[in-house]
Amino acid sequence: MFGNLFEEEEEEGFASTSSRGRVAKGGEEPPPPRGRSNLCGIKNQGGTCYLNSLLQTLLFTPEFREELFNLGPEELGCLEDKDKPGAKVRVIPLELQRLFSSLLLVDQQCASTANLTDSFGWNSSEGTNQHDVQELNRILFSALEHSLVGTTGSTFIHRLYHGTIVNSIVCKECGNVSQRQEDFLDLTVCVCGVSSLEDALWNMFVEEELFEGNNLYRCAQCDRLVTAAKSAKLRKLPPFMTMSLLRFSFDFAKCERYKETGRYSFPFTINLQPFCEQTDGEDSDYSYELFSVIIHKGGCYGGHYHVYIRDIDQLGHWEPPEEDCKPKTQKKVKEEVKKEVCEPKLQEDDPLSVLTAIIAQEPSTSVLLDQLGQKLMDKIGSSWSKKFRKHYGPIGKFLQSHNDVFMLVSNGTRVALKANPPSPVTESPSPAEQTTNSDPSTPSDPGADEQQSKPEQEQGSHWFDLNDSTVTSIRESDIEKQFQGKESAYMLFYRKTQLHRPSEALNNPQYKVPLHLIQMAQEENIKMQQMREEFEATNNTVELRLHLAPSYRLENGALQPISREQNGSTTLSFDRRKTVGDLRLAIYQMQELWEGDMALTVAKSLPAGLHLYNTVTDDSVSLYSAGIHTNSDLFVWNGREVCGATILTGAEWEPVLLTVVRPFLGEDELPEVEDAVECKEGRGGFENGGPGLKREARGFAGAVTLGEVKVALGEPKESLLCQEHKGGKRGEHGAGEGGGASGWRLFPPDDMQRTLKELSLKDGDALLVLEPQSFDSSMFTLNGDVVTVTTPSDCRWLQVELQPQGGGGGGEGEKEEERRKIKVPATGNMLLGEVKLKAIEELQLQEQPPGAQYCLRQVDCTGKLLPPVCEELSVRDAGVRLMTTLTLCPGSAPKASQLFLHFSVGIAPSAGMEMDIIVENTCTVKECLKSMLDAVGLDGTCWHLRRLDWCEEVGEPLMDEDASLSELKISNGDSLVVTEGQLPPKGFLKISVWLYLHPSNNSMETDFNHTDNGHTEEQMLEAVTAGETESHPPPLCASNMAELRSVGQVEISDEATLEDLKTQVLTLPALQDVCVPTTAFMRLWQLEERRLARILRGQQLTLRKMKLTSGTDLCVQQLLKEEDLGPKEVLLNIKMAVPGERCYYPPEELVWDASRDSSPRSLRTCLAAHYSLSPDSLLLAKHQPDKHTWEEISNWSQQVSKKKKKKKAESLLGAPFHLKDGDTVGIKVLNLLIDNNRDFVTVEDEQGQQRLREQAEQRRKGGQAANSDGVGPQKKTGLTKSRKPEVALSINVGVFR
């Protein structure tokens, strides 16, 4: 009737699909058990709320349910035989039987209708299209009647719902009566113009319509036009009367649909005797009672269905709803009585008295923390911040400081009084929260549950609200709220009061259910119970890393393992529901030789080492309540010292790992490298003891001053400390040609008294230590407060080594004598051809046999020869560093337009077995293959080329034989394998891989300089130094256009896992030099329009499940530690606002676990723990880069339930924020003394908004110009909302006649 014009409201759809529990570690989360109502809901397939409401009504119609269960397999057949040819299986009633038995007997929160809708012949799109529930009622009954033809149940729909109406026309002159009978399964009653169901029935069956004046009736007996009266009466009343209210009408003036939302009442019991043809029966023959009301919420183009049902057989457990759900009159009377009798005079100036009174007056004796502030304002007319914050601090701290009066319950989300704890009846979590989100250490008292529910549990049947997967108790008076409004009654179901239920059917869900369906439900219950037990055991086990004090020593401001072979940590699996005391006892049992006190302190592994934070002292709390989660680090010690050294704990003493840089003037001054200190030479490559810089990693506590650092380094008082200058490019201070220069800023004397934290020094920052006499050297230049370090000009040389004939792989005799080395003066602009000629002259190789050719080749760190350098390029352009060694080898050098390739035939090349070839980089794969085959004397067409992977094994084939080598990113020195056989079939995914480049971290970029167009030596020094000093990867933001660099393509099957994809990405030639211990050290982003869109997660998920297609662009980011993000762990880019200024500190990456709780409170708590601040002092906002605006993340929800009048928990993963990987979250610390500005907008944002306004104005002017050229009135074409076309509802039924 209405097609798919109805759309599910977000509030309802989210409630049915959101997961409040934890994400299963070992597998899929099992369905939660039934809630306190003991009734089962139905899962919404996207738009099937209308179907769910009708099915629940039929289920709670006992006579319909029992008639359906009376049909056995001998009449309906078996579902297992439905695919057999010739088998007559009545699928629809069989699936309906299974669904009803599951709703009655299976212990699950909601059942699925997927199998039932499949039996209707619906496809997947039908599940998202909503239809009219009255239309479904008629079509479903028709489908059941056709499905049951030839069975004993073929007439049960007719028996239960069929009634007749007789229409009569009485001639006023002769008295002749003309009658016509109509059948009905439901009555459609008018809503427009009437105020109640009784009025509508009176107009239909009592009022007469007169034919008079110009509207006369032709009487068959009189044979002329006469005055007559038309009326209708109910002739036969069915056991069940269904009333459909005509809420939707059509306005012919406006030519649009609309919904009648005016008041329309209906009785709970109704006597239809005045509307019947025969009225001589007993009153009970005409008396009906209401047992179901299907409600529509929304308008005529969108909405949601749910149903109020009276539990006739008392199958559910009814509990009184919360006080907010009661009618206003009852609530007001109760509040007045309570105020007069129970409430003493309130002391509004005493916050303890006010909060105690607020909590004590709640029916659940507890209040949600998020709502406590609002209730306080309602109570005294002022907020906490205005009245109490100045003297008592934030409300959260006030509650904590009065823990003798208040206590937190329900996982810290509610506050209650210790003297009057909340009852489990009124303050009960949902079934999902009970199984997955509850603190296991909180005890429950089922006895108290029964005692408190008994007075309210009246005898007889009660009403429930079945809203898709949720079932809640309601009062009978709540039905009156559905008389009017956008959420109002749409279908009414009445049953005869004569229909009585047998006593054995009460509280017995197995009544009349076939035995085979009972057994099936019992097996399903056993299976689900096992799944839940396994899930709970898996999800409550946390992996802890224990660090034992005897295995550590204090060094460089942090705790370091004594032995390099043993990292000092022990992994312990422990149940998080147990207490801290149980954990302490378990550690005592593990460490039998432990003596004295044992303190457990939360620790964290930092680049400088292990650092300690807060000590867990309360043995009675559970690990969950103590905030100890999986992969937590715990340090086990005596609480005072480690190996005689006092340990400073807390965030303020976090160690910082600095790179200490000192001048190095020769090999004689190079100290021995200790175990825990790594010394590196400056990137000048100083061979032969040349001058340069040496680097040493040292850790210092963040709270120490710069002066104390100088003392700890053992430097004299007059020595100077410098910080790397980041104000401009390093090479801008000038250096000699071919040399390298870097800038450093001198710390002023006042900075000697400031701490490392105050100076914003972080891990990896470099600290240059100089003595005053260092400026006597030409290597160091002081200009104001900037120190320039310049590579000396006498270091401009290249060493050339002659490789003897035969490749240098022979013995040590005369061939070793032929290995001669000479130094050739060189600069960055000198051509490599000139370097080769000078080397040939000095080595006196001109007299070699005529025609002998030589080339220059670099050598890697393993001694392997790299491809010959192009002699047409300069030293700088070829990426050759000065003060390095080149090898002069026999052979030809490639030109700038050529490639030097290694190749082998059949197998991966081994040492000395590979062959070389020089080809044009524009030649195709087919031409390259032919050249290789000609070089080895092979012929034929059954050959193809393959690359080598990172393991030096035969890798992926080159599929496109017509593509050029440059298009396939084949570069100098690549190895190819000539493989026998045709190319493998296509169908693999071709994925482009990009490398993320960041101006502050080019450590990965420097790994590819030997293959790309070269950099200057200054650029090389800059990149490598940045790579050494930067200890954290730069945060990636999906809102910014990333600076990307293509590193190639991979071809892989869509059945491969993410781990396989990462492994294959590492085989790309451009990434072969990247140091990645395992694939967990690499992060893959999916790109959309060159934006970082999402992180690929789930190492064992296939690419098909991740919905990756051919042509997808991926971005590689190298990590410094392992990462395995869960399905609901979000990588955020967080920026702390600078107090008093309209700017932010540099961004940081933060992984927020939203699996347990995705509300603003959870994010606020996570950020507060990260910055060691109070959650109440933080203001959060999400950056909208496309609009250059900030959307504040409030701690209050804006979604208010109509029934419960309480604010629902808001999920940041859904509307309106939709937080995802890479989103930027701004943070402000609310401090009225320093900064009370709540605006997150920066100057750059205002400039961006101005640009958007200018662009919009230009588009508007352009649109007006375009419209002026149009023809005809096109005024509102763009304003009308596009709607999906209406789709007819149908149910396919087989032929059983």
Automatic annotation (TrEMBL):
Region described as Disordered: 1-37, 417-465, 725-745, 1245-1285
Basic and acidic residues: bias regions: 725-735, 1251-1260
One Gene Ontology term from the biological process aspect of the record: protein deubiquitination
Pfam families named in the record: UBL_USP40 (PF25822), UCH (PF00443)
Skewed-composition ranges (Polar residues): 425-444
Example GO molecular function: cysteine-type deubiquitinase activity
InterPro entries in the cross-refs: Papain-like_cys_pep_sf, Peptidase_C19, Peptidase_C19_UCH, UBL_USP40, USP, USP_CS
Residue ranges annotated for the USP domain, each copy included: 40-497
Feature: compositional bias, Acidic residues: 1-13
Gene Ontology cellular-component annotations: cytosol; nucleus
Protein's name in the database: USP domain-containing protein
Species of origin: Dicentrarchus labrax (European seabass)
